[in-house]
Structures are given as structure tokens and as C-alpha cells.
Design goal:
alpha/beta, 13 strands, 10 helices, five-stranded mixed sheet, rod-shaped, single chain
Length: 305
């Protein structure tokens, strides 16, 4: 009886006010469309349209059918779009890497949430690209490179994710807890500074405070857990983001001190190709939705200060 084709006929007649123009949009002749309309009326046993002078007017029955058409056709269009998207997602594979393994602490919730919404998309982590994600992106080995404080090399698109604040992590009884604020580079002269990498000891921030640091020693430690244990044992201090330390605050004797106020937050960004598929951008949105600052203010991570 009813088909989407019939709904489309009535919708176009209502839009154009003319069988001729409706037929043209459907690539039909006027007589062919009129014949289909008469067949529909005969099958339904009602009149849908009649003429008043030169105008076409919907009957009460015609208006009721048109009302349903205006509800159904947009839903069908949306359904087709969703099915096309799901079909595209089913063949999708997103390769990604970050500049440090600790990032998986805040990246994992985004991975889990995205996978629930897009089960057909394969999320492929490429940890071996962590040394230089942007280079691997340029070589076509990644679809998303997640880094902090880097300029966007042409032609890659920089999509900011969130800002984090670097803090000084010290043992709970450390002398600097009684030190007047703000901290200054000379305060580090007697300290062993624990860093992830000697090549970029406190990230990629270019700021006079970091450039002026001259600690007693610098010790390269490759994991967050090891840095936390060494700080807890009084064997050094570290400059780390609040989200990296927060999981350990309840089980270790640690304190976190703010750096000088003019030290800016660090910005994490996802870099993608200009031609990145929509599903890649949807994953970036998932990261933003679960980013550390989406959950709690910075002051929540300074319990011992």
C-alpha cells in the first residue's frame, strides 16, 4: 500500500504546489506521476488531493498522509546516513601513538568509550612510534599523533585536546614545603631532578624557568611508577603533570608544589592529516570528553599543600 515513494510524491507536491514540478524532480512525466497518485487513492479508498481553481489542495485524508510523510522521510534519511557511517566505520582502522606511555592513563578512558560507540573501528596503538609521533605521522604510519607543546608541521592539522599544569612533586616532609613561594630555579640547586628523558627533561616547554634550572644532578627514569617511588623514598624531586601523580596520592607520602605563576599550562594536541576521515575526528572528540581537566579542577590534586 504505502511506500516511501508515495510519501515522497506527496511531500514534493506539497513543497512545489504542482504535480508538474514534483514529477520533474522525480524524473517522471506528469502523466506518470498522476497515474501513480490515482492508483494510491484507489488502493486507499480516499481522495488525497483536489483542485480549487488552478490550485492543488490536500484533503483531510491527504493532510493526514502528508503529516506522516513529513515525519517518516527525515527519519529514513537519517537512518541511511547512519548506515553509511557504520559501513565506513566497519572498514576503519585508526593508528595512534603518544609521546609518552604515561599518556595511556588518560587516553584509556577515551579508547574504551569510543570502542563502545564504534565497535567496528579498530584502534591500533603503535607504542614504538612514541619516540617521534609526528615523524611517524608524516611517514604515513599513524593516523593520529598525540604530543604536547609542538608546532603543527605542514600540512598536518593541530587539534588541541586539553591543558595540564606541571607541578613539583616532593616527599611529604620535604624542606621546600616550608619555603616561601614562589619557587625559583636556585631552589633546585641541592636537588636531584628525576626526568623521563635527558633529551627533554620537563617536556617541550620553552620557558626561562626551565632553562635556568641547575639541579645538583639529573637522573633519567623511564617510568612514572619508578619516579614516584624514588620521590617517595626522598631520592629526588620531579616536575610532572597533576594527572600523572594523582593516582599515587592516597598510597604514597607525596606533596605537590606549584611552579611560578608565569609558567604556562602545557597543551596536549592531536595531529591529523587534512584529509583525515570523520571517524578520526570523532575519536579526537572522545579524547576531549575524557581529558583530565574534564573531571576535576587543579586544586583537587594539591591535598597536602
Amino acid at each position: 500500500m504505502f511506500t516511501l515513494h508515495h510519501f515522497r510524491i506527496l511531500q514534493l507536491i506539497a513543497t512545489h504546489g504542482s504535480i508538474t514540478r514534483a514529477a520533474a524532480e522525480m524524473s517522471l512525466t506528469q502523466s506518470a506521476l498522476s497515474h501513480q497518485l490515482r492508483d494510491l487513492e484507489a488502493a486507499l479508498g480516499v481522495t488525497l488531493l483536489h483542485r480549487v481553481g488552478k490550485a492543488l489542495v490536500f484533503t483531510e485524508a491527504g493532510n493526514r498522509v502528508l503529516q506522516t510523510a513529513q515525519l517518516v522521510l527525515p527519519e529514513v534519511a537519517a537512518l541511511r546516513g547512519d548506515l553509511r557511517r557504520l559501513q565506513a566505520d566497519a572498514a576503519a582502522r585508526i593508528r595512534l601513538s603518544t609521546e609518552c606511555y604515561t599518556c595511556y592513563q588518560w587516553l584509556s578512558p577515551a579508547l574504551a568509550a569510543f570502542q563502545l560507540q564504534h565497535p567496528g573501528v579498530e584502534l591500533a596503538l603503535v607504542p614504538e612510534a612514541a619516540a617521534d609521533p609526528l615523524t611517524q605521522l608524516a611517514k604515513g604510519r599513524l593516523d593520529i599523533a598525540i604530543v604536547s607543546e609542538a608546532a603543527a608541521p605542514d600540512p598536518w592539522v593541530k587539534l588541541p585536546l586539553f591543558d595540564d599544569q606541571l607541578l613539583l612533586v616532593v616527599p611529604a616532609a620535604h624542606r621546600l614545603l616550608a619555603h616561601p613561594q614562589p619557587l625559583a630555579p636556585p631552589d633546585f640547586a641541592a636537588e636531584t631532578l628525576l626526568v623521563y628523558s635527558l633529551k627533554r627533561p620537563v617536556g617541550l616547554l620553552r620557558h626561562p624557568f626551565f632553562e635556568a634550572l641547575r639541579p645538583k644532578a639529573v637522573l633519567e627514569v623511564h617510568s612514572t611508577e619508578a619516579i614516584i617511588e624514588l620521590v617517595n623514598a626522598g631520592l629526588g624531586v620531579a616536575i610532572m603533570p597533576h594527572w600523572a601523580v594523582q593516582p599515587f596520592l592516597n598510597v604514597r607520602q607525596l606533596a605537590m608544589l606549584p611552579l611560578p605563576a608565569d609558567v604556562p599550562p602545557r597543551t596536549w594536541s592531536a595531529y591529523v592529516a587534512p584529509t583525515a576521515a570523520p571517524v578520526v575526528h570523532r575519536f579526537v572528540e572522545a579524547i576531549r570528553a575524557t581529558a583530565p581537566q574534564a573531571h576535576a579542577p587543579l586544586t583537587a590534586f594539591l591535598p597536602l599543600r
